[in-house]
Amino acid sequence: MSISGAAVALPGIGTALGTSGAPLQWVMNAYNLVFAAFLLVAGVTADLVGRRRVFVAGAALFAAGSLAAALAPGIVALDVARAVAGAGGAGVFASGGAILATTFEGAARTRAFAAMGSAAGLGLAAGPTLSGWLVGGLGWRATFALHAAILIAALCGAGFVAESRAPERPRMDGTGALMFVAALGALVLGAVQGPQWGWTGPAVLGLLVGGVVLLVLFVRLQARKAAPLLDLTLVRDRRFLALCLVPVVTTFGFVTLLTYLPTYLVGAGGMSAGRAGTVMLLLTGPVLVTPPVAGALATRGVSPRGLIGLSLLLFAAGDAWLTVIEPGSSPWVLAGPLLLVGLGAGLSFGINDGLAMSIVEPARAGMAAGFLNTMRLGSEAIVIAVFGAVLVSLVGTRVPSHRLAADVAAGDLGGGDHVRLAAAFTHALHVSLWGLAAVSAVGAVAVYAALAQPRARAEAPAGAPADEPAVAMAEGR
């Protein structure tokens, strides 16, 4: 909700605080950048000092940052508060996944992660609508106050969670942590600022090249460390790495639509914001109801590998089908492709994280959850920024100026002939959708192939319940 709903409050924030442009956008960017950069560090810290402890600290930090955002007197204070909330979100996300992975086993673990997937679906589906109601009825500050209230409620339940940590507790790799945060922060910042500063400008190129160089140095450093921040044997497991790539493909096939489709529906399609939000429920609604179904199928013997492959193929099919969209398209025309994409997201949300955590030993649960979610959040920040730049470039091939192209891609079609500009936006969206479909199809094949392995039955310790999804994976199903 903090990601999908906060954007709705931006116009009200700009009016109330007398700001616009980059400072206003950093209400979103500060949260996303810090969230993505600190996930791995938060996960490793959870393994070392205690997963419940990091969950509590993260939830408290998130609540404090959200409360500070609700009370912020100016835009700078608001941006800083959102960065604090992002750091807390990293602690909650990384330790939360590790807690579920080490608390539950077998079918119970699958159900637990399916429930978490449904919660994510609820945030995606209800976040913008609920935030819109709050902004309209109580003002933008109420949205951040609600975030704080929810996390305070979560803190009240933390006492029922058992503490767990890795049996061996080496010192934190401080150098590796600083290098990784700096590398990912540079890459995300470069991607986020690329559209504003120019992709070929020295600042953006410096950030992107510097981020890549730091990542290469980080990997070399980790290979020589006795107690690394990221154990490279984890990412050398092709099944785990394949499952970490699923959120990346999901960003292409699903999250980009979640971000940019409303802009098209309002700008080129002429819909009201409320009607566009209703249409978007066709995309987000399945994410709310499908995860438990996916979890139930997995526990009843349906191949998790097959379900993951199917989810990514649904992205490819839905994105390709959505090229039927035109200005004035009715919701009935859009229902089929949007429901397909939403079903794909719901399937992956329901089983992917639990499956990934089931093939990692408990001692590295926090590290694994941190890396998995780093791939998720990092890819969202980078892919969304790049997709926006591609959309502007494609619109620019049919309009006279880059500035006008940027306005059209942002949904402002008031700078010329509306019919002509809508046609340019439609052309750009169609080409982009074919690209998303291609990436999703290639990702589906690659992930499905990587999840296969020689038939070798995984044996649980005597008296222990079998981890059904992990056994299915071990059998190549």
Automatic annotation (TrEMBL):
Chief localization: membrane
Provide GO CC annotations from the record: plasma membrane
Could you cite one Gene Ontology molecular function of this protein? Answer: transmembrane transporter activity
What does the UniProt entry say about where the protein is found?
Answer: Cell membrane
| SUPFAM superfamilies registered for this protein in UniProt | MFS general substrate transporter (SSF103473)
Where in the numbering of this chain does the Major facilitator superfamily (MFS) profile domain appear?
1-455
Family listed: Belongs to the major facilitator superfamily. TCR/Tet family.
Can you say what this protein is called?
A: MFS transporter
